[in-house]
Write a structure and sequence with these properties.
The complex is a heterotrimer. Chain A is α+β, with helices and mostly antiparallel strands. Chain A contains nine helices and 21 strands. In chain B, about 75% of the residues lie in helices and about 0% in strands. In chain B, helix 1 crosses helix 13, helix 2 packs across helix 13 and helix 10 runs antiparallel to helix 13. The chains are: A alpha+beta, B mainly alpha, C mainly alpha.
Chain lengths: ~375, ~300, ~280
């Protein structure tokens, strides 16, 4: 089932109603059925608000939300057929894992109507709880209370609770942020596996780009309530739509600096270095740290720069060059001879160089 | 939140609050104003709810009544004696209980027990202990050749006996509070003080006392208010207000004027006066402790 | 880890121990003397020598007290139990609903109303019993157990305490329950209340003890001997019985014993309750 947002807007006013903040500004997009989509952006960009709008925990100021063909904008959360996993899991502390998973089923009116006989309903709930527990691999924890579980286990229980009532949409709010680094990688793969196994359309909020890039079918990048780009993760990395997206994705981050075009060449460190068809003027250039290739001085299209800093970490060396007054970070193979304080020459891989106009929009031109 | 308009939320909240608000409005808020109103009449008919002689006559009567003076004086004496003594004693006991001395579990149980007891029942036990003829206390003093003292029947001793009972009853609550306060002090402060070669006494003066500052202020306020409300201790110990009314207190006075003498407006006026005195003391104490905190 | 602020000198520890021991004797002695006295004969009571424990335990002192016609302690005990239990159930009910509204429902004027209620705590309850007596009489409740129960079946202080606890329960739990199809009412009873169990036990205990020990108000609204509670009954009995201290001590023990039992069972809750809320204000 597709999820479609039409011109969705949410504003919050402060207590005295003197000031309004636009948390979500005119969103329109469609999430395809069965996809795992990441809502990505820095904190305060409106991604959790979007998720809560989808869940029905917040009401939009204007705009509509469709699940398939059904307009769910006015429906309360329990009638939308969604499962929601909270950042802190929000497990009911006084209930066992079993009761936590069974709780939404026991509350569900439609479930009650489908299984009118109390005994039959109880057996059906038991069947679903056991099955869900098996999917998230917590069968042996069903009798425990949440406080007796590790963070990763609590996370699985939260997912189990969310998917037990077979939701049409699964929503995850920063599901990994409370786990340590090792568990985080393990759990995000687990989420992907569960999502694939159940085929539920899933929306996943995160501020961590690596998380979003590694498991999603699509990412939606947001900034201050405005969508910046929607695309597959790798496509977004290769074709960032603007300076914000380029800088937000990638670790270490992209090197961004102003650059001039003179007579068909980019001017790098006072030298006409790289040919271009762009007209003369001011631009912004971004270079991914992995796109530097060291070469002999005087090679065609090479750039000369001072090596300000060098550190070798295993296979790679981390080198900082001074380009147009900006310290640019480069990752190069560690066997190449570069000395701190000396000069070096390098060429650039075209795929790692991005151009933007002074307003920050991408220029697709090579 | 969750798609509800504010009118609906308000109605819903009122439904939730209805039981509590009803009780509080009828039995707390209304009486505050009604008692105040009553106190300004010279005479009040509690059946027709009508008063006559609006003015300050009841206050003037109360303020000129020697029994009220006695009640006021006794209440002050009771507060001035029991509050500081019980605070110092309970702080001392709390520090010892906090020292992990053998058997401190048992001691805690013993020291906290008086908190749950019934003032009338334990007052009777004290009456029995302090009985001039066959009370165990006089028998005990007799072992040292001290003549029997009329603890309960001599007007000169009655306040003294009342204060002893009052201190005994008030200790448990204060010890619990102090103990919680002591356990909340960061042990690193003491470690730092030891490194700075501060002795035990200095640690007490420089760390324990200042750290307990807010709790101390709280204890003083609560203890003073409770001392001003002293009544059941008197009934428990003497059965009335002591020999020749020597142990009468403000609450006793109010109750007596209302219930036994049917002087409703006098009772109301004395109740308002009691409230004002408690307010003044509370403010003075809060001021003092705030000033100390600022320094 | 060594406790830096504790007494370390072994001699000082012995002195402290002896002091605590003597102090606990002083604290416990009235209880001991009351119980021991309740088993003595009149002769033992009035004997000039100190008799620590009766030669033979006089259980009939208790049967005498419980079957007296002039002061029916059995009825007193029943009345006290009814009043304390019903009052506690009512108080818990009003407290739970009130605390929930103040903690979770964002209605207009909430903070103002709450502050107004808090302000009423400044006024000593002794001041309003005068008017409450009039109100109860006009409600035709004088000399009924309801008169003892109703005025104390809601407490601003307990609402304040429970609201503090409710506020600590994370908002996400509320949202999660919405997603799981819970109404506010169901959320309160299925999620909030079970999680606030220890706070509710504490509040219930304090209310029960306060109700059991109440004296002035029950005295004012009770005319009939059959409606007396233990505190009042004991007071009347003491006035009537002259120097029958062995019987008085039996009566006092009947009043105090349930409290001691409750205290010994729930000591942890009671101590935590005092320490956290500074109850009895």
């Amino acid at each position: 089932m597709d999820i479609r947002l039409e011109n969705l807007t949410k504003t919050f006013s402060n207590k005295d109603k003197t000031h309004e903040t636009i948390a979500v500004n005119d969103f329109s997009f469609t999430i395809k059925s069965g996809h795992l989509v990441g809502l990505l952006g820095p904190s305060g960009c409106g991604k959790s608000t979007t998720l809560f709008l989808l869940a029905g925990l917040l009401t939009p100021t204007s705009g509509k939300i469709f699940f398939g063909d059904e307009d769910v904008t006015a429906l309360p959360p329990e009638k939308r057929g969604i499962g929601l996993v909270f950042q802190n899991y929000a497990l009911y502390p006084h209930m066992t894992v079993y009761d936590n998973i069974a709780f939404p089923l026991r509350n569900s009116k439609s479930f009650k109507e489908e299984h009118k006989d109390a005994k039959e309903r109880k057996m059906e709930i038991d069947k679903i709880v056991q099955e869900t527990a098996r999917i998230v691999a917590i069968e042996e924890l069903l009798d425990r209370k949440p406080a007796q579980l590790s963070g990763g286990q609590q996370q699985r229980v939260a997912i189990a609770r969310a998917i037990a009532k077979k939701p049409k949409v699964l929503l995850l709010d920063e599901p990994l942020s409370n786990l340590d680094a090792r568990l985080r990688i393990q759990t995000r793969e687990e989420i992907r596996r569960i999502q694939k196994a159940t085929g539920i359309t899933t929306v996943f909020v995160t501020h961590d780009q690596e998380e979003a890039m590694s498991i999603t079918d699509e990412i939606i990048i947001m900034k201050s309530g405005v969508i910046q780009q929607i695309n597959e993760p790798q496509e977004t990395y290769i074709h960032p739509a603007n300076v914000f997206v380029a800088q937000f994705l990638g670790n270490p981050p992209i090197n961004m600096f102003p650059v001039k075009v003179e007579g068909g060449h980019f001017v790098l460190n006072d030298k006409r270095a790289i040919r271009t068809v762009l007209p003369d003027g001011d631009y912004q250039m971004g270079i991914r740290p992995e796109s530097f290739n060291l070469c002999e001085a005087g090679t065609d299209e090479s750039v000369d720069a001072e090596v300000v800093f060098k550190a070798t970490i295993g296979r790679d060396s981390q080198v900082r060059f001074n380009i147009n007054g900006k310290l640019c970070e480069a990752l190069i193979e560690s066997d190449r001879q570069v000395a701190e304080g000396g000069m070096a020459s390098f060429t650039l891989k075209r795929s790692g160089v991005h151009l933007f106009d002074t307003a920050g929009e991408r220029i697709e031109l090579w | 939140m969750v798609g509800q308009n504010s009118k609906k939320t308000f109605l819903k909240a009122m439904l939730y609050l209805l039981p509590a608000l009803l009780v509080v409005a009828v039995f707390v808020i209304f009486p505050m104003f009604h008692t105040l109103r009553m106190s300004f009449y010279e005479d009040f008919n509690i059946y027709s709810k009508e008063g006559s002689g609006f003015g300050l006559s009841s206050y003037i009567w109360v303020l000129q009544d020697p029994t009220f003076h006695k009640a006021l004086l006794n209440t002050f004496i009771y507060a001035v004696v029991t509050v500081p003594v019980s605070i110092v004693l309970s702080l001392f006991i709390a520090i010892l209980l906090d020292s992990r001395i053998r058997g401190s579990k048992f001691f805690q149980t013993a020291y906290f027990l008086p908190y749950v007891t019934n003032a009338i029942a334990i007052g009777l036990a004290f009456r029995f202990i302090f009985h001039s003829e066959f009370g165990v206390f006089n028998k005990f003093l007799g072992l040292f050749g001290i003549d029997a003292i009329q603890w309960l029947n001599d007007p000169d001793w009655s306040m003294f006996t009342l204060c002893i009972f009052g201190i005994w009853s008030a200790l448990a609550f204060k010890i619990v509070i102090f103990l919680a306060g002591l356990q909340g002090i960061d042990p690193q402060l003491y470690q730092a003080a030891r490194i700075d070669e501060a002795g035990k006494w200095k640690q007490f003066i420089k760390i324990t006392l200042p750290q307990l500052g807010p709790i101390m202020a709280y204890q003083f306020v609560i203890a003073t208010i409770n001392a001003f409300k002293c009544y059941e201790e008197v009934i428990g110990l003497f059965g009335d207000d002591g020999p020749l009314h020597s142990a009468t207190t403000m609450v006793y006075y109010m109750y007596d004027k209302f219930y036994n003498a049917n002087r409703y407006t006098i009772a109301a006026a004395s109740g308002v006066l009691m409230f004002l005195i408690i307010m003044v003391f509370t403010f003075i104490q809060l001021r003092m402790s705030n000033k100390k905190a600022e320094q | 880890m060594e406790q830096e602020n504790k007494i370390t000198n072994p001699y000082a520890r012995v002195v402290a121990f002896i002091f605590l021991l003597l102090g606990s004797v002083v604290m416990l002695f009235p209880f001991f003397w009351m119980i021991s006295g309740s088993f003595k004969t009149l002769r033992e009571i009035t004997s000039p020598a100190i008799i620590w424990w009766p030669e033979e335990m006089q259980w009939q002192n208790y049967t005498t007290v419980l079957t007296m016609e002039s002061n029916p302690f059995g009825t007193y005990f029943r009345n006290s139990t009814i009043v304390a239990i019903v009052n506690t159930v009512f108080t818990l009910f009003t407290t739970i609903l009130g605390a929930f509204a103040f903690s979770r429902l964002e209605f207009k004027g909430r903070d103002k109303l709450f502050n107004l209620l808090l302000a009423t705590m400044m006024v000593p309850s002794q001041m309003y019993i005068i008017t409450n007596f009039i109100t109860i009489t006009r409600m035709n409740l004088y000399n009924s157990l309801w008169a003892q129960i109703l005025p104390y079946s809601a407490s601003v202080f307990y609402i304040y305490l429970l609201r503090q606890f409710f506020n600590q329960i994370p908002d996400q739990l509320y949202l999660a329950s919405k997603v799981d199809g819970c109404s506010d009412w169901k959320f309160l009873w299925k999620i909030m209340v079970p999680n606030a169990k220890s706070s509710l036990v504490t509040i219930g205990l304090f209310n029960f003890i306060a109700s059991w020990n109440a004296y002035l108000w029950p005295l004012m609204v009770t005319g009939d001997i059959n409606k007396r509670t233990l505190s009042i009954g004991l007071k009347y009995f003491a006035s009537d019985s002259g120097s029958d201290y062995h019987l008085m001590m039996a009566g006092a023990t009947i009043v105090v014993l349930p409290l001691i039992v409750i205290y010994l069972i729930f000591q942890k809750y009671i101590i935590q309750g005092i320490a956290r809320g500074g109850l009895k204000g």
